[in-house]
Amino acid sequence: MTRRPEVAVVAPLTGPRAAWGAALLGGIERARTEHPAAADWRVHDETAGVEDDVVAGGYAAVVGHSDPARGKAVAAAYGAAGLTCLLPFLQPEATALSWAPDEDSLPRLIVEGAAALGAVSLSTLHDGSAQWTELARRVGEEAAAAGLATAPSAAAGAKDVLAVLAPQELCLRLARAVAPRGPVLIPADCGLGTFGSLDSYAAGLEVWAVHAHSCAVRRADSAVTALARTLTASPDLRGPALTEAVRANSGVLLTPRGAPLGEGWRISRLHELCRRPGPR
Question: pLDDT value at position 94?
């Protein structure tokens, strides 16, 4: 009997990014059901240096990772080892396949969103972590370049927009602490388990969600399904040949450099994001 390929699954199992891990592991469970012969999926907690363990593990491929601060480093480590790397949640890196939008365009989108809402000012609030502090800095630069004030206006009737930059489950709690008087922009992903907690904090606020076209669950499913299909058909493929075959089998069209074609960001009212049609 042919031994099934082994695939490393790198997911945060605890901590502030655990919701991303849950979205990925849900995709793995669906793959086990729909493509039972594809692979043995070996879960690794996303901790510092996990890429070294994965490279040493003799895997056919690795899927996962959620920490944007580590994206370049882990992609480089896997690329140097010739290991096929799938990044459902992180933007494209050399030698890796990605199903995530490019985050470089996010600051400008937030500023354009504020302008479209009629803002005279765009202020930012963040949780103090490196990721969100850096995004707040870039948003501030874009706002200044667009001619928006970066502190609330004292003028009566002026529309001030607040961008709260933090994990989604913290955003509206942070916003309520400063009593915003205008629209609030927050990053959101309806595929994460923490999304359901936002409703109670949104009451009485005009909240707009800044979100990827495809949610975390859809991106995880697309990546895992493409890999499972490929390994079911060609279990002996490895390295660049496997990477190219996964790209070709992706249900989402990926460019030759491994990025999702047309994937991007949009801004929607929070209560419209992922809303299911029902009786009116």
Answer: 79
pLDDT in tens, 260-271: 999 999 999 999
The position carrying tokens 């202020």 is 123
DSSP state letter for 109: H
Strand blocks (E) in the chain: 6-11, 40-45, 61-64, 84-87, 97-98, 121-126, 160-165, 184-187, 207-212, 265-269
Give the three-state DSSP class for 255. Answer: coil
Nearest residue to 209 via CA among 217, 220, 201: 201
Q: Give the architecture (CATH level 2) of 103-212.
A: 3-Layer(aba) Sandwich (3.40)
Residue 154 has pLDDT above 80, yes or no: no
Reading phi first (left if > 0) and then psi (alpha if -120 to 50, else beta), residue 179 is in left
Q: DSSP of 165-228, one letter per residue?
A: ES-HHHHHHHHHHH--SS-EEEE--TTSGGGGGHHHHHTTS-EEEEEESS-HHHHHHHHHHHHH
Tokens 């009451």, residue located: 203
- Report the CATH architecture of 6-101+215-263: 3-Layer(aba) Sandwich (3.40)
Q: Which of 270, 269, 273, 253 is nearest to 261 (CA)?
A: 253
Same fold yes or no, 6-101+215-263 and 103-212: yes
What's the mean pLDDT when you consider all of the chain?
A: 94
Mean pLDDT of 165-171: 97
pTM above 0.90, yes or no: yes
Q: Token pair for residue 103?
A: 């985050």
